[in-house]
Amino acid sequence: MLYSFLKIVFKFALKIFFKEYKVIHNADIPTDGPLIVVANHPSTFMDPIIAASLLDQEVHFIAKGTLFNSKFNNWFMRNILKAIPVYRRQDNHGKQQSNDAIFDQCFQFMAEKGTLIIFPEGTSINERKLRDIKTGTARIALGSEARNNFELGVKILSIGINYSDAPTFRSDVWINVEEIIDVADYKNDYQQDDRNAVKLLTNKIQENLEKNLIITDNQEEDQFIQNVEAIYKNEIIAHLDLDPKLHAFTLTKGIEQAVKHFEDLDKSWLENLQQKVATYFEKLEQYDLEDRFLARDKKKEKSVFSDSMLRILFLILGFPFYIYGLITNYIPYDLPNRIAHALTKDEEYIGPIKMTSGIFTFSFFYILWVYLFQRFIAQGDWWWTVYFAISLPIAGFFAMLYFQRFQNAKTHWRLISIFYKNPNVIGELLTERLSIINDLDWAKEQYLNEDKLI
Prior knowledge:
Mean pLDDT: 88
Largest sheet: 8 strands, mixed
Structural class: alpha/beta
Shape: flat
């Protein structure tokens, strides 16, 4: 009962925490087992929440043994999260505890038509990478089938989780659900050579995850891809007439693969482009500007004067509503951030702690504000109390929008100020940007002609 309630709460919380929460279905998700769900693992506790939220049925997790290191943790992991501990060598001072009993438990769980979520990388690091997949998933799947003469019907569902910035409130997440693997298809391989069958199935899992993730080799490449997205994503959207929300992951994946393509084709050309892009963004940072303020959207083009007047008008008229939203929402908004950073320094934990604590802080303060309003202001008029309760989250979202618009206005006015004081600076930035766009246009045509775009 508690598990079902928490699942509903977290499903709702995910839609609030992430600005863009997009699930791309390349396959239907089974509503029963025996099923093993595998996913990448960039965010320690956010990943299992997301994976479980996609499934209607109750799920169990495979989790590292160190998460069961206290009485409360042990109770919470086993009874609330339905987790099964696995003990690794690095968690036990070099001496690995036997996992034979864990495998037996998983075999039995599969035989009972259960659904198991496994993060086969074995570790959680907040990077756009996929580490080598461990063989445990394949061993559980094949072992379960072997015990039942490959008539059990175990399926493996791969899920790729892509965060724009996992620890940050109102960031984005794209979730790709890959086609199902039928473990029975590996029956002949297993009967001929069980170890080779484990290897083949593990490689298939790795392949399914890789094509549903943005994967970069290092931080420099990751930053370059993000910069190219900032400059060029709208150009690709316009050229290919795509829906930016529907194709957000596909576009980023296409850029990632194009970078790897040109790294193999002409590494010196790519390095020169990377340097140009890095220099351009360093100059933007120097002047505290953003690329989107230098990009021109002809469909929305206005005069500088009219655009500035509209910004000022919004900020003036919206200020009272901003103050209202700030007063009623700032404390429950700020507390989760303070709690998360007080509890941990690890980025992998910050996002889920913020989301979980936010559920409680907003619930507590909204109930408190409604109680105080009903008692001291509405004084028995429940309709006014209902209106006030509805206004609280609306005012909170408006306050965030207002603050963002205010920051945008500051950057906009800074751009105008720089232009009038030193127009050569803006001219140089626009020239550098145009040069980068021209290089990317050429690269796009070359890449598209080779039919490599996803």
